[in-house]
Amino acid sequence: MFASMTLEQLNAQRPLADVFFEYDSADLSDTARAVLQKNAEWLRRWVSTTITVEGHADSRGTNEYNLALAERRASSVRDYLVSLGVPVTRMNIVSKGEEQPVCTEEAESCWSQNRRGRFIFTAK
Amino acid sequence: MRRSNRLTVHHRVAITAVCGLALLVPALPMGAPDMYAIATTPLDQQREVAISVRGESGRAPRLGFAEFVITGADADLRTAAGTVSQVLYDDLEFEREFAMIARTASSKIPATSAEALPYATWNEVGADLVLVGNASRTDATLTVEVRIMNVERKASVFGKRYACTMRDPRYCAHTIADEVHKELFQLDGVARTKLAFASDRDGERLGGTIEERSIKEIYISDYDGGRQLRLTPHRSLNIAPSWSPDNRYLAYTSYTSGFPDIVLHSIYEARAATRPARGTPNAQNYLPAFSPDGTRIAFASSRTGNFEIYTMRIDGSDLRQLTSHPGIDNAPTWSPNSQQIAFTSERSGQSHLFIMSADGGPVTRLPTGGGKVDRPTWSPAPFNYVAYSAEVPGGNQIRMIELGTNKITNLSDAFQGNNESPSVAPNGRHIAFVTTQWGKEHIVIIGRDGKLERRVTTTGNNKYPSWSHR
Fold first, then answer.
1. pTM
2. Nearest chain A Cα distance for residue B388, angstroms
């Protein structure tokens, strides 16, 4: 199954779940850690994959600060995955600030979805 | 009419000679503003300018704006003259040196030459001064004569003929407005300046995936929001433009290559854009700011593991790291003499404003009036203030601090929601920023007294405004 998939199909299937953050925080909650533990398990199994971890912020806070905050979120995710045994050489990070929201309503139901770490496969 | 060109020949050569991945980009389908040579001819003797312009007790003179006399029955001329007349009115209103008499209040007064001006009628609507215009056309040349008459003395205080081009009546009007302000008030107006900003308006129309919806391209418009043109064709995320001092280049952050680059883009000439700071998995680059002397670009980069401030020459050489602190250092802005850099830092807890010398010398913290602050923008000389955003309950507001006295003024309190990313006009009198007052993110201009002067954008989300130089 994995062997026959293209990179595009792998990215569309999204075997690595997003992790979510509290407002103005790059700390990993217990829920986020549990998600990352599953993701790490997957990454340890499919050792040929490489990923970019994207950090994202919600629209509150200022644009410039959110570039730095989202970078910090991506770093937290990467560092935790490293602590779980995923080689740092398989991961890049990039900050998207608040520029790529999943959801554009100005309400917590939306903001909470936008404060996220997201995984993009770059090789398999 | 050529404007001062502070980017020296040496630096221009450096820009074209930069090696590295070239990004092929088209130029805007219009010439640089200073390529239009508008010939001006004084019309008649101007008398006692100072006495004639200032109203009694120093109040702003009330300016009546006569309908233009149009010589010729050509529909294109009529349209062009209408544009010149409306844009000129709006430009003169913008600087608030004149108290403008609404055109609706004087629309019944017949359009006449200055010689036949019905002074008594203008006096009745309260005019101290009346602007009289005449437009005619010879082929592609749009000739506009403007006189400003003193109603009491029945004398001209301003009179010039402008040989403009039919292709660009807005620039014609902006030129006239700048000259009127300069001659009558010794004021450097901003009518010919421009704004650059990032907008998702095209991606938004496309719909589709998150990435497609979130395409942001760099746009350029007249300062008043007229003629909004898309500069970049990247179909990716492009943000945070900053003008070169000669207004011919924009530096901005582009995700075209996957990792944020600082791109240097020639606006009016078709030449490959360069990437003086190339994004890689290990070096990502944000928020470029051109030094006012045109020699360097300051930016934020996470290349050492968190956001620090760097500067480099505009060709990417001579990279210098100015800050080194585990907290976020971000959003650099240059002092007018290019000797200092203001920035935000979390080195003393939440985000505060700091100033350091441009080679990374000792750091001084500025008072800000409370709340997390962001995006400082240093006003141009001779003004000496920094505009910035500060977090308040329910959003952010724009403030400014006078650097001589550390006096802090709230500027945007009349606006709801999030107000952020201020950029200061080259004459220091106006501040453009992003507001969510109307739901989406839009760019507006306020005066230093907080009064709304212009809403610049109306479609899509628009952010990271940058005001051009004069």
1. 0.92
2. 11
